[in-house]
Amino acid sequence: MPPSPDSSVDCHDGDPTAQARPFIGILFECCGHYVRVYRRPSERQYVARCPGCLRVVRVAVGPEGTSARIFRAR
Fold it and tell me: How confident is the prediction along the chain (74 residues), in pLDDT tens digits per residue?
């Protein structure tokens, strides 16, 4: 049975000042794993680790960057 529209979950628990956490998606080609990576709004980089081989990837955030949300780690 599909959920009713009235049963939606609010991730901010009714706080109108709360902001969604920024995230990106990374496909680790080394092991074929996709992960969603979150960061705190105050941090200037995303840090991800492949769940298969534990390789670390860092993605900087800055004004000269891209608007892309999905990346491949090779």
Answer: 555 555 444 455 556 556 788 999 999 999 999 999 999 989 999 999 999 999 999 999 999 989 999 999 99
Q: What is the pTM of this model?
A: 0.70
**Domain ranges across the chain:** 22-73
CA distance 36 to 46: 10
Here the tokens at position 58 are 């860092």
Q: What is the largest CA-CA distance in the chain?
A: 46
How far is the CA of 50 from the CAs of 19, 34, 57, in angstroms?
A: 27, 8, 8
The CA–CA distances, whole Å, from 20 to 51, 56, 58, 68, 72 equal 24, 24, 21, 17, 23
